[in-house]
Amino acid sequence: MNLVLTVLEIVAPVFLLASAGFSWKKLGFDYPVEFVTRLAMTFAVPCLIFTALMQTEIDPAALSTMTIATFVSYAVIGLLAWGLIRVTGSDRRTFLAPTIFGNTGNLGLPLAVFAFGEAGLGYAIVIFAIMAVLSFTVGIRMVSDDASIKRVLREPMIWATLAGALFLWQGWQTPRWLTNSLELAGQLAIPLMLFTLGVAVARLTPRGVGRAMLLSLAKLLLCVGAAVGVGLAFGLEDVAFAVLVVQMATPVAVTAYLLAERYRADADAVAGYVVISTLMSVLSLPVLLYFLL
Hints:
Blueprint: H1 2-26, H2 33-55, H3 60-88, H4 92-100, H5 104-143, H6 149-153, H7 156-170, H8 176-186, H9 189-203, H10 209-234, H11 238-248, H12 254-262, H13 267-292
Helix pairs in contact: 1-5, 1-9, 1-13, 2-7, 2-8, 2-9, 3-4, 3-5, 3-10, 4-5, 5-9, 5-11, 10-11, 10-13, 11-13, 12-13
């Protein structure tokens, strides 16, 4: 019973804040999603990433192992997802990237910090940063031919990750007044991302619910299976293993819908995928955490 309550304490803030954003939009209140997303991803999240990496007490060697394990996990998931898309006869441009890349930012980071503390956040940030790089290169290439390394180099999150890793490796620290300022800015990230997730889901017009249910369940099973296999193969310690599994099990990100809309894939079908996989995660993520804690 105590473990059930612990899981509830972890997931309740995440889903309640996302639900608040969903309700906000449904009640007709204004919410500038594009502006808030830009604020979060170019300011608050980079500050969170940099300070979390700079101050983490995780052994840099363990973070390096997590980095390699994450790349291998995405490679395995990519192959399995490609097979799934072929078997189900789904459109590759529409469904392949959303099946591979989950919502490791809006959902993954809050769950990691609530469930596993600062160590969990450090590992989760590594996965999130790798996912961002792959999404803006390989992911866009799956939807369009417009992928470019320049797009990645324009992302503040990437530079924050590199700077944080450098400071961690060298044992450097920013002056206390600057650290406090960056930490305060970084504290905006998680509530902003969760609330915005709810608003964004409320704005979607889903289609193809039957296919979305099938793909969402298959995505969950193949991503969890791949993460568990890779985690065991790399001998990840308990927190790192759990964070890898949870991050890979996160549902389709709203950004998948935005990319589909921008590059003229079937955006409404992706919207259905986002909504169904997010709803499914309300049950699947607490169950996963129950077994991982």
